[in-house]
Amino acid sequence: FLDVSCLDYYVRESGIDTQTCTSSNPCKTLNANVIVNNINTADDYNVYIYDKTTLPSTLTITRISPVRRFAKDSTSLSSFGDIIINETNTYFNVTGSILFEKIKLVVSSEGTNDNYIMFGSGSSSEIELNDC
Question: Which one, of 86, 83, 90, lies nearest residue 105 by Cα?
Fold first, then answer.
C-alpha cells in the first residue's frame, strides 16, 4: 500500500484568496493562506495557474524534496501562466527546490525587486525553469 499525498492548488485572475484554491474554487494570488501555509510541507506540492496571478509578498521555499511546482493549468487556453510581481522587494526566496513549467514571470513597473525575482539563498537551492 502506497500512500501518496499531493497538494494541488489553483489560481486565476478572477479568483478569491479566501477560497480553498481548488480547481472549482481558485484563489487569486500566490499569497492565499492555504498556499502559503502549506508551501513547505512534506507532500507533493503543485500550484496551477489558469491565466495570471500575482506575488504580493516574498514567498520562501525551504523544502528540497519533493520540488515545489508552479505550472500553467493544462485546461486553460493560454500558452503560459503569468506570475506578475508588482511590489518592490518581492521575490521567490529559495533555499529548497522550485520548478516553473510554462510560466511567464512578469515584473511590472512598480516591482523593482532590487533587480531579481528569484533568490537562491541556500547551499542546496534548486531553481528549474521548463518552457518558460
Answer: 83
